[in-house]
Structures are given as C-alpha cells and as structure tokens.
C-alpha cells in the first residue's frame, strides 16, 4: 500500500450484501486517489514483488505443497478481461500460469455437467490459474438467453458454491473479479474496434445481442454477486471504465491474495555444505 | 536486424551437418557484436514487435487458422531454460502461451508410448507452445542412464522425425533450441543456487549425477543434433554461458519464426459500416 491508496482494494472492492450494481459508478476509482500515470508507475513498481510471490507459490507446488490460486474474470464484452491477462498476469513468469478462456461449450463439453470443463482446467498445485469467463456463464448468458429452464440454472448457484468450497478446501485460493463497465464505455470500445482493422477479429456482431439485453445481464450479474460471493470465494467488483484503474486494482488483489498464502521459500532437504563440497571438490 | 547483428541467429546458430558440439565456445555470441547492456536494450526494443506477431498468430487461431508455434528448450541443468521462459516467452500475452515442463514421466505416462504425453501438450491452433525439456529426454537421460535398451532409444530418432514432420504438416512451426553451457559455468550456477536460500528448491542433489556424466550427455546431444535437425524442425544451438545473449538470440529466433508465418490480421467477416450504424443508431 502506498499513499495513493486510501483503502485497500481487497476491502473497497469486495462485494457486500446489499450492494447494488446499478449504483456503481464505473468510472470511479474506489480507494485510489492518484491518476493514470501514477497508477502505471505504481503497478510497474510492484512487478518484482508480484513476481517474487508467484515464484514462491510455484516453488511451493514443486516441493509437495497443495496451494494454488485461481483468478476468475467476468464482465461484459470489451470490459477488459483480456487486458488484465496481458498486463497483470503478464507480469509474472508464464511457466507458473495457466490461462483458459471459456466460450460457448463444445459438443463434448455440453454432453457433460457444466462444471466438467471447469474441473479439467483447474490449476495444479503451485500454479496461478486464470479463467477468462468461467462457470459463471452458466448463470449469465444461459439465464439471459434462456438456454436452459430456470430451475436448471437456478440450481447452479448452490452447485457453484459447493464446488468452490470444495476446491478451496483442497488448497485453491479463489479470487473472483467482475469488471464493470457502462454501456457508454462499451459503445466507445466497440466503435474503436471497428475503426481499427487489426481489431476486427475481436468484433463479433453476435455480441450486440448481449448489449441489447444490458439490463437483463445486469440483473443476472446482480444475482450472481448476491448468491455466490462467499467467504472462501468472494467477488470483487472493479469499476473498469478506466482500464488503468482496473489493471492496478486487479494487480493489487492478486498481490494481496498471494501474500495471504504466506508462503516461505522451501527449505533445503539436503545438506547444503556437503553439496558445496561435492561440487567444488573441497 | 540491427547493426549489432552481423548475421541473423537463424543462420549463425542453426545446426549444420558436420558441426561439433565440443568445438562450440559456450561464451561466444555468434553473429552479435554488441555487449550485454545493448543486448538488453535491443531485446526490449523488440517487445512490441514480438507481441504483435504473437497476437496475429492468436487472432489467426481464433478465426479458423491452423498454424501454431512450438518452442522446444533443451539443455543441461542451469542452462537457462527457465530464464528463457520468463524473460523471452514472458514478453508476449500469456493468453496465447501454453508452457509445459517435462520431468521424469509419471506412472500413467510411462504406461504409454513416449510421445503420448507430448501429443497431449501440443499447442492448439493460434497458440505458442513452450516445452521445457521434451521428447528429446528419451534420447538423452534415457540413453545416458540406460533406462531403456539401446535398440529402443535408438528407434526414437526416426520416430521423433516422423512425429515432428507430422505435426509440422498439420500446421505447427517447430523451433528447437539447445542451450549450451560449459561445465565451469554450470558449477558457478549450482554454487550460486547453494548460496541463495531462495534458490535451494531449484537444487536437486540428484542433478549432480548428470554433471558427472557430462561427456556422455554431450555425446547424446551430439547425436540428437545430428539425427534430428531436419528442414521442418531444425535445431538451433545457442551458446548460453552469457544469459543475456541466449535470451536475445532466442527472442530473435522466435520473432523470425513468427514473422515467417506471414500472418495478416484476419479480415472482417461482417459489414463494418453496417455494424457502425447498428451501434451508433446512425
């Protein structure tokens, strides 16, 4: 924490019972008083620390430890999930990272329970897993597009909570981040994609459907937050109209989570001095 | 290419019939006349280009393309494979990267053909796959430690060439890098691991066994290079006593490979102006 933060994002951004998504100012920067340039400098300044913490986790996994971290990113199209992966997750050693995006389920995935593909993508001990979309799509797009009967997706809330409690108990620290943007900001970002031919591949006319149903998605997000923000797997709602704030905030949440694991460097399970003699022939 | 390179590493480091590993100066910097600081600046200066090329590959994969890249890293302990992953692969978006390390095979892996675990880890279209060790362990440690009869590992050379030709034909561009260090440099690096408690987890007394058999490993590497450097999957031997040179060289090899794919940004498969009108209500 530095002077620019008046409150840690792990506190200020954590979803609380009674919070209303429609009351959130998506351009705000809760707990942070600095500006864009200072935010970038601040984040860059924490790169070594983040990297060190991630390497401790990796070392822990290599020496029999069971802890892992799972960062789940949700948000409307263009909310900046990919940017978080590139600019925040990209700050640490890719060797210790497993990224996975979840789009429309494949036929094979659809033949299974909705958590099947999720379980297969969970980070092994020592790894930082990153989900760009996740099992939460099953209470978001599935709900809004009426891909399943209500009784079916409604059951998912409890199923998700039980699932997350199970993997948390097995050693996975879960950080759930919803990137919240306004429809106006999304419009700007979509138009900007159209303006730049190198971004056309990221534009899908079908995405406009979700935009037309903004209110329904917000209601689905609201209930998701209300029903699945638990002590072992809390939601953080990050105002994301300002990309620099979202990136700074998520990097702090990740750092906070890794630090919370309180991992020491594994101790040598060999005689250091003896090895030195063996090596140097002394 | 810039002034500091007199010959592109794709040329100067490429293994040629008749090359001798024991004639290589592992402190040399073939084709490069600059020094350490300039090398770091040069590599950092290419970060955007490398990132752009990798994103084109990713976009290509997202739009039905079949190309992928597989970077295979081999080398003795402490040769800097992990550093290449962190410092070179770490320059691009982790979303498009799949890293996999291959250690001693698990019982499940051992129950299968030696290429089974390799096939399962191949990069999907659009991805950059990175192998820290690989199927080449089956003609290296397996040979030197006599884990299989000679007839068995000897058959692997042809099997590997057939396998790599098959995946190359399916769209995977293969870059094989051997990081070559001297035993003296390895000694320094091992002692340095002993000196730093936070590096003890990376030190394994069992690794000394490979060090004692340095000559046998060099012979195994020599034959590996002679037998498996093919047109579709050439080996590059990178002198790696100077980490900064190895990192610069591999970043250039990766850039060269990605550029060779000659991928354009995918064209829009929708009417851009119509989408603009739909979005802006114009």
From TrEMBL, chains A, B:
Gene3D superfamilies: P-loop containing nucleotide triphosphate hydrolases (3.40.50.300). It holds the Pfam family PPK2. Keywords: Kinase, Transferase. Transmembrane segments: none annotated. The keyword Methyltransferase does not apply. GO terms for molecular function: kinase activity; phosphotransferase activity, phosphate group as acceptor. InterPro entries: P-loop_NTPase, PPK2-rel_1, PPK2-related. Residues 49-258 form the Polyphosphate kinase-2-related domain. One of its GO terms (biological process) is polyphosphate metabolic process. It comes from the Bacteria. This is Polyphosphate kinase 2 family protein. It comes from Isoptericola sediminis.
């Amino acid at each position: 924490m530095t002077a620019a933060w008046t409150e840690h994002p792990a506190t200020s951004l954590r979803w609380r019972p009674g919070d209303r998504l429609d009351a959130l100012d998506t351009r705000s920067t809760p707990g942070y008083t600095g500006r864009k340039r200072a935010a970038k400098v601040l984040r860059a300044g924490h790169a070594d620390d983040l990297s060190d913490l991630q390497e401790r986790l990796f070392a822990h996994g290599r020496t029999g430890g069971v802890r892992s971290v799972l960062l789940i990113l949700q948000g409307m199209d263009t909310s900046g999930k990919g940017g978080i992966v590139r600019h925040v997750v990209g700050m640490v050693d890719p060797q210790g990272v497993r990224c996975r995006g979840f789009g429309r389920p494949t036929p094979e995935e659809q033949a299974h329970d909705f958590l099947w593909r999720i379980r297969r993508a969970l980070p092994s001990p020592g790894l930082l897993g990153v989900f760009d979309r996740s099992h939460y799509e099953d209470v978001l797009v599935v709900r809004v597009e009426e891909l399943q009967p209500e009784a079916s997706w409604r059951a998912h809330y409890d199923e998700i909570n039980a699932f997350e409690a199970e993997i948390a108990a097995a050693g996975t620290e879960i950080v759930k981040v919803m990137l919240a943007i306004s429809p106006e900001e999304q419009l700007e970002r979509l138009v900007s994609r159209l303006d730049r031919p190198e971004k056309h591949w990221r534009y899908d006319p079908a995405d406009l459907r979700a935009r037309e149903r903004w209110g329904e998605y917000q209601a689905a997000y609201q209930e998701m937050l209300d029903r699945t923000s638990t002590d072992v797997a809390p939601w953080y709602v990050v105002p994301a109209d300002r990309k620099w704030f979202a990136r700074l905030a998520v990097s702090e949440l990740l750092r906070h989570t890794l630090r919370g694991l309180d991992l020491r460097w594994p101790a040598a399970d060999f005689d250091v001095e003896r090895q030195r003699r063996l090596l140097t022939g002394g």
